């Protein structure tokens, strides 16, 4: 009897898998912190005999090479991927015995589109396909984006994505479970998935890639693509080179004087506490990226790559969890860290900085020329409606465009509050008067604010 265990990477919006039989298993698209995969195998009582990659990932650093080294597993990587390390190159139609005693095998299926070399893997039991690991190819209700490799290849890869999806539904039974890596919040997805599980048959009937012709599909896919997170530039090369083993030991501790010195040197000091606590009191000049938010995505997207970062956390566990999230995107070693609260992070006698939080209802009562409404949502979100007269700077562009924010008290909002808190901290660090709108955008209509659509 086969099994499949899902390993959630919630912060990045990805999934990894461990699948196999009674004694041995394969790890699919493992995260860099491979201890999770090893623990899953230990609970199952199986040995990892194979590690496979569906493609060279653009959104996170893989743990595949390290996992194969630790376990002695065969490391299967698509033959078309240009890598600098020894691996077993995989081509269309290649098979591997994952657990011979259980009749569990794996078959490679060439599915170019997300990348030119993308490969999916069908898990067979007793010769019957039961699961297909689709990586960044066929997702739940959508497909992986085709624009992460080379702009000149984007349309070609979009057409290949269409062809690959149609090949899978032609070759695999309707009841085959579809298990993608992306689509649960990852920016590698061309749209966010709706639902937690699917099959070939369900996708055949509902996924746009099967319900429109190829030209319409390509045009709509390309028109809907979002900005690419800046740190993606560094992920592909890191994975092609072969990531170094990670180091999750605690960073050196910083006292108040060192925190102040790092701020004075222009380094990033990141407060991981929730946005309510940060607004009520924080180290002036620090930035708020909530540990419970998408810290890996947004911090890696916004920080100048390679700039030292100091993490401020309310507990050692919060610090460790954030450190684990960040190594997945190549931010390997914080320069320093501190735990506790602002009283321990500030020189004696120094008061913490603060700014107010509010709602759209309160914003509606504060009109006038001294109020600046700053919308930090993505372009696609704003296209569905925005507050008349608001300034639009997406959150990932704000650090480089702070000078464009008009004078006055800045009421900053996003769709729910998390990104507004990040933006408010950036503005507060420059000395601006800021109010963080911690509210769902639907409340703007209820508050009577005039919305515009384009």
Low-confidence stretches: none
> Would you tell me the structural class of the helices and strands?
alpha/beta
- Rounded to the nearest angstrom, the radius of gyration is 24 Å
State the total count of DSSP E strands.
22
Instruction: For the record, give the distance between the C-alpha atoms at the N and C termini, rounded to a whole number.
Output: 54 Å
- Write out the CATH superfamily name of the largest domain: Ribonuclease Z/Hydroxyacylglutathione hydrolase-like
Strand order of the largest sheet: 1-2-3-4-5-6
Count the domains.
3
Major sheet:
6 strands, mixed
| Percent of residues in beta strands | 15-25%
Can you tell me the CATH architecture of the largest domain? 4-Layer Sandwich
Residues in helices, as a percent range: 25-40%
Shape: globular
The CATH topology annotation of the largest domain reads as Metallo-beta-lactamase, Chain A
Q: Give the rounded overall mean pLDDT.
A: 95
- Count of helical regions: 17
CATH class wording of the largest domain: Alpha Beta
Notes on the protein architecture:
There is one protein chain. The protein has 454 residues and is of the alpha/beta class. The protein is built from 17 helices and 22 strands. It has helices spanning 35-44, 64-71, 154-171, 200-206, 208-211, 214-223, 232-241, 256-264, 275-280, 295-302, 316-327, 342-345, 360-363, 379-382, 395-398, 418-429, 442-446, and strands at residues 3-9, 14-20, 24-28, 47-52, 74-78, 88-90, 95-99, 104-110, 119-125, 128-135, 177-180, 268-271, 287-288, 309-313, 336-339, 357-358, 371-375, 386-387, 391-392, 409-413, 434-437, 451-452. It has a six-stranded mixed sheet with strand order 1-2-3-4-5-6, covered by helices on one side. Strands 7-8-9-10-11 form a five-stranded mixed sheet, with no helix packed on it. Helix 3 (154-171) crosses helix 6. The protein starts with a strand and ends with a strand.
């Amino acid at each position: 009897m086969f099994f499949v265990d899902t390993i959630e990477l919630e912060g990045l919006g990805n999934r990894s898998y461990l699948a196999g039989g009674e004694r041995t298993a394969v790890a699919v698209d493992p995260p860099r912190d491979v201890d999770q995969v090893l623990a899953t195998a230990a609970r199952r009582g199986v040995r990892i005999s194979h590690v496979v990659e569906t493609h060279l990932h653009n959104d996170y650093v893989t743990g595949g090479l390290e996992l194969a080294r630790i376990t002695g597993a065969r490391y299967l990587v698509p033959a078309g991927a240009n890598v600098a390390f020894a691996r077993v190159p995989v081509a269309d139609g290649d098979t591997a015995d994952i657990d011979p005693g259980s009749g569990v095998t794996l078959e490679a299926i060439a599915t170019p589109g997300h990348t030119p070399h993308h490969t999916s893997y069908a898990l067979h039991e007793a010769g019957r396909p039961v699961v297909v690991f689709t990586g960044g190819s066929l997702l739940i209700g959508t497909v992986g984006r085709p624009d992460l490799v080379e702009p000149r290849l984007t349309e070609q890869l979009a057409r290949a994505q269409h062809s690959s999806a149609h090949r899978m539904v032609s070759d695999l039974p309707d009841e085959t479970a579809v298990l993608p890596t992306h689509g649960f919040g990852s920016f590698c997805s061309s749209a966010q998935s709706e639902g937690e599980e699917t099959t070939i048959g369900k996708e055949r009937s509902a996924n746009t890639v099967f319900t429109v012709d190829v030209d319409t599909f390509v045009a709509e896919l390309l028109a809907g693509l979002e900005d690419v997170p800046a740190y993606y530039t560094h992920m592909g090369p890191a994975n092609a080179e072969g990531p170094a083993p990670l180091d999750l030991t605690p960073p050196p501790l910083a006292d108040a004087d060192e925190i102040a010195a790092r701020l004075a040197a222009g380094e990033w000091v990141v407060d991981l506490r929730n946005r309510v606590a940060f607004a009520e009191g924080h180290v002036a000049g620090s930035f708020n990226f909530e540990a419970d938010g998408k810290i890996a995505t947004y911090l890696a997207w916004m920080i100048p790559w390679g700039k030292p970062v100091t993490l401020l956390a309310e507990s050692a566990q919060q610090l460790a969890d954030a450190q684990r999230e960040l190594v997945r995107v190549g931010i390997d070693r914080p320069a320093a860290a501190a735990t506790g609260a602002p009283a321990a992070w500030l020189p004696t006698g120094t008061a913490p900085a603060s700014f107010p939080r509010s709602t759209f209802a309160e914003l509606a009562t504060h009109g006038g020329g001294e109020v600046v409404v700053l919308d930090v949502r993505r372009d696609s979100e704003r296209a569905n409606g925005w507050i008349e007269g608001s300034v639009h700077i997406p959150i990932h562009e704000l650090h480089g465009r702070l000078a464009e924010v008009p004078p006055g008290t800045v009421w900053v909002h996003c769709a729910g509050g998390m990104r507004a808190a990040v933006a408010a901290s950036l503005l507060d660090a420059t000395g601006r008067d800021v109010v963080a709108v911690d509210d769902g955008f639907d409340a703007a209509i209820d508050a009577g604010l005039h919305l515009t659509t384009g």
